[in-house]
Write a structure and sequence with these properties.
By secondary structure, the chain is of the alpha+beta class. Helix content is 49%, strand content 26%. It has 2 domains: 128 residues, no CATH class; 42 residues. The protein starts with a helix and ends with a helix.
């Protein structure tokens, strides 16, 4: 009977390790690719970089790399369905892991938070599958915002010129 319990535990450990690797790798690559650096400092033998990517679908991410000259890295994930992630204090991370080495290894990590709720895990897997579309939508939104801002700036310039010309000509 104990053998059946052991094999179940071994399977659960293996599944968890696989998911930890998948989440950590995905988040690190995504934050490096699309996130923004919020703090960077150069130590004597390390570069400490904190970066984040907010509101990528229903998720937000924070990475904290190179904490000391011996390494030290954190990866955090927040799940906030249908909410804008502005106030971090409103949400608790669903995933938080620390590892010492330059590359994530499950035998070298400390899981600080792992929400057992399958809702966020399923949503995360879905987000991973839809990453390309989400990135394309994100790029389009950024492009549309830039166009709108540029158009508004041009309109403001035109209005300012018209006001200046009207003032010069005494048109009120």
């Amino acid at each position: 009977m104990a053998r059946a319990g052991s094999s179940t535990l071994i399977k659960r450990i293996s599944e968890r390790e696989k998911f930890l690797r998948k989440v950590t790798s995905f988040v690190e690559k995504l934050v490096q690719e699309k996130g923004r650096v919020i703090r960077r400092s150069q130590g004597s033998s390390n570069t400490h970089v904190v970066a984040e990517l907010l509101n990528f679908g229903d998720f937000s991410f924070k990475t904290d790399w190179g904490q000391t000259m011996f390494g030290g890295n954190d990866v955090e994930v927040w799940y906030h369905p249908n909410s804008n992630f502005k106030d971090r204090k409103r949400f608790n991370p669903v995933f938080s892991v620390y590892y010492q080495c330059a590359r994530f290894e499950t035998d070298d990590c400390k899981v600080n938070t792992f929400d057992e709720n399958l809702t966020w895990q399923s949503a995360f897997n879905k987000m991973m599958k839809n990453k390309k579309k989400m990135l394309a939508d994100m790029k389009k939104k950024e492009r549309d915002t830039r166009r709108k801002d540029l158009s508004e700036a041009k309109n403001q310039d035109k209005t300012a010129l018209l006001k200046k010309q009207a003032e010069k000509l005494g048109v009120g």
